[in-house]
Amino acid sequence: xxxxxxxxxxxxxxxxxNVDKDTLIQDLEQALVSAARKHFNAIDTEEFTCxxxxxxxxxxxxxxxxxxxxxxxxxxxAQTAKQVMIQRFREDERASIYNEFIDRVGELTTGMxxxxxxxxxxxxxxxxxxGNAEGFMPRSEQIPGEQHQPGERVRCLILDVRExxxxxxxxxxxxxxxxxxxxxxxxxxxxxxxxxxxxAMAREPGHRTKIAVSSIDSKVDAVGACVGVRxxxxxxxxxxxxxxxxxxxxWNESSQILIQNALKPAEVVEISLCFELGRATVxxxxxxxxxxxxxxxxxxxxxxxxxxxxxxxxxxxxxxxSLEIIExxxxxxxxxxxxxxxxxxxxxxxSVFDIEEVGPEYLAETLDTDQETARKVVELASEKAKVxxxxxxxxxxxxxxxxxxxxxxxAAMPGAEQAAAILGDFIGGEDAAPAxxxxxxxxxxxxxxxxxxxxxxxxxxxxxxxxxxDSPPTYEGRTQAEAEEDAVxxxxxxxxxxxxxxxxxxxxxxxxxxxxxxxxxxxxIRTRDxxxxxEQSGG
Length: 539
Fold this sequence. Notes:
single chain, alpha+beta, N Utilization Substance Protein A, Chain:P, domain 4, CATH 2.40.50.140, 4-stranded mixed β-sheet, elongated, disordered C terminus
């Protein structure tokens, strides 16, 4: 091989592998030095030097300033030079890949699906200066249920880049919340320009994402801009995520209003905050219970993560009963007076379980009582909590027993009667189908601020179970007739369009805006109809 051809080959490798040309020439010089040491069986590395002219390609090897003819090295040293050259080329290529992609961590990129290896998807990524690199998407970072065919375009996030053995491992993801964030930056210019800020996000990949947004420009509606005209912007994001539903929530510095927005489309009656426990007790009417909790507790779980509050969902009757238990327990024992009991409720401590959890020191400080009395209050709460827990367990078991008996009775019926019984339960709403986006009103008639069809309903569970973000139970969904009645009520109420939007097809419309109290320390928030005019304040 003549020197000119050698330089052309080095230049081609440099372009193909995206490695600096001068680095490759230095690698060749080091390989030839190794060959010379091998030929003369020398140990001292300083004894030999090699120079390659960058223009002509002429190679000169020296041993202590004395030039050695290249032909004198022989065949075996040449093989050594080849091995060293290959090794150094690979090291340079790994370094080049690492340096390029480490600066792109957190960036959205597009690759080509190649194959699956042990559940991980191998994706071919194009390099900036030419050539390709392989990225790996672990099963944990994939969207559940999503399958990619070889040659299919894959849009993903560069999650991490690390050196693993003799290769650079580029970890990709489609399941991280940052994928949704980057897609919003691509589809919504106001987000990319930081006019609209994504304040918080919670995601269950493949199912639903809740995203809280705010605008620094009063003339730009954060929710409307993210949804786009007739849902055009949000639809592109949903399509990219394979139909994953996206709820766009209006951010508010008030925890009560933020929680209320996060639980939409459910209508909230009261929100009681306990800052000591980081817990929000949300009261909703019976017909809103399944909407607030969502399918398998998904709505309340995502709302809890979005707002950074533990959220318990109660009906008004359950909320009142919980307060009555506290009042009866301590009034009969003479440990707390009525003012102190009211103080507990105002601080969001609304059950004997809460009293047990906050402890005596907090009670002594907030109720202005001594440590001994506070200790007795906690001890009594612990005893009562056991009784209440046993009672709730019995009610749960009884409800399960009744359901099992009903199922057995239906199973024992003849075919026609069995079908009629099941149909009767369905029509009656006992086991009604979940409310979906098709049940919601169309654009301009009270649609929710969400992307994709609504899935806020529940599987068959007992209505007496409580919901929290850790282990939420499920509740029966609304019937379609009830959802249609809600739609008519929304349409008649003349709600504000800026407080609701949807990406379900072309849906985009308003819903009712609840009173927006800005006092974040207030213990309770009520809807417009329940809050006296003197207590209302602007959101």
